[in-house]
Write a structure and sequence with these properties.
397 residues, Alpha-Beta Plaits, Multidrug efflux transporter AcrB transmembrane fold, four-stranded antiparallel β-sheet
């Protein structure tokens, strides 16, 4: 039986149409990323995030008004269904809400050690929020400083390398936020979870997340080249890059459309779990691609006289049922997490669901047809990168 007869559906014949569709979707995703921009989580921006639950229903606008009275750079978002009465409050500026404490500290220090005691007073927010003070005059012990500041609650004096400087760990934003909400709203509430990251650490995490994705794609390029051939590798990497871009674009689009949707969706912010989800999508999609690539290689040995287009089409048809069954199994498991999991796992599950759908499409319409494209341009690549080999071939003829 020939490979052409074994084909049931002509996937490869429609490759140009779907290639155009993929290019358009990737361009839209890039425009969304650079123009609309994603909602960055505190993992990448720095700040404090508080997840709290009220005992009774409240108005979201009322909560926004209460917290914005003390914090300027703040975002309030309802999570889960309306009956849960759960909200996420994100304070983007780590030192916000602590400026008044800084004034009190400086006043007390000047009263105890002289008006010219403070030479420099600066915030340090790499790890938590600290006020670093460089002073003049004779050296003061930490005990002396702590004793002078005993009238100010929730501050801690710590040592730094410079003998003329010391640091004061300021009270966290969570306590200030908790006090503000309790003062302005009469409904009891509990804090379910808090997270805090400094902006410098956040910037480093964002950079490391991007590097991890790019490094993964680079290693996959090498792996596929060694396992199959150089003609196979670009298709695998293009498909994975395609999956990542489109999932990111869908997340941005859904995140901006969330207030207008008739159903609740999880928080669609970009944070470390999202990077984990993207890496998982890369691994899952690569697995699908490797299965088809293995079948293509087997059929290349089986159908030596068959043209490459028919051979690839046959391979896709032969592995199609396995691809669909695997995808449906994964979608079923992730759907359970999406509907019944917590807010963090819901975001992860939604990313995986979108990635599985897009990844199944790209395995068929991006990775496999790219082999044909690489085969078509191979003579040109040889002429560019191996001119000596071309000359030897011509001389032999």
């Amino acid at each position: 039986m020939s490979a052409r007869k074994a084909s049931k559906y002509d996937f490869v014949g429609k490759r140009k149409t779907f290639a155009l569709l993929s290019i358009v979707l990737c361009i839209i995703s890039l425009l969304l990323f650079f123009i609309v921009k994603p909602t960055w989580g505190i993992d990448f921006t720095g700040g404090t995030e508080v997840h709290l639950q009220f005992e009774q229903p409240i108005q979201a606008d009322q909560l926004r008004t209460a917290v914005r009275g003390k914090f300027a750079q703040v975002n309030v978002q309802q999570v889960g269904d309306e009956q849960a009465n759960e909200y996420l409050i994100r304070i983007e500026n780590p030192k916000e809400g602590t400026e008044s404490v800084q004034g009190d500290i400086e006043k007390v220090l000047k009263e105890n050690f002289g008006a010219d005691f403070i030479e420099e007073s600066t915030f340090k927010v790499e790890v938590g929020v600290r006020l670093v003070i460089k002073h003049t005059g004779e050296e003061r012990s930490l005990a002396e400083i702590a004793n002078a500041l005993s009238s100010i609650p929730n501050v801690k004096v710590v040592d730094v390398k410079d003998s003329r400087s010391f640091a004061i760990e300021l009270p966290g934003q969570v306590s200030a936020l908790q006090k503000q909400i309790a003062t302005d709203m009469s409904v009891p509430f509990v804090i379910l979870q808090t997270d805090s990251v400094g902006p410098k650490v956040g910037a480093e995490l964002r950079q490391q997340g991007l590097i991890s994705i790019l490094a993964t794609l680079g290693l996959i390029l090498v792996y596929v080249s060694l396992r199959f051939s150089l003609n196979f590798a670009p298709g695998a990497v293009l498909a994975l890059l395609h999956d990542v871009l489109i999932v990111i674009g869908l997340f941005i689009l859904l995140g901006k459309a969330a207030p207008y949707l008739p159903f609740p969706i999880p928080s669609l912010e970009f944070n470390l779990p999202m990077v984990g989800a993207l890496l998982t999508i890369i691994g899952y999609s690569l697995n699908d691609t490797i299965v088809i690539y293995d079948r293509i290689r087997e059929n290349m040995a089986r159908y030596r006289k068959t043209d490459m287009e028919s051979l690839i089409n046959t391979s896709i048809n032969e592995t199609l049922r396995r691809t669909i069954n695997t995808s449906l199994t994964t979608l079923g498991a992730m759907s359970a997490f999406l509907f019944f999991g917590g807010s963090v796992i819901q975001t992860f599950a939604l990313a995986i669901i979108l990635g599985v759908i897009v990844g199944t499409y790209s395995t068929i319409y991006v990775a496999s047809p790219t082999i044909l494209f690489m085969q078509d341009i191979q003579p040109a690549l040889v002429r560019i990168f191996s001119p000596a080999q071309v000359r030897e071939s011509q001389e032999a003829e």
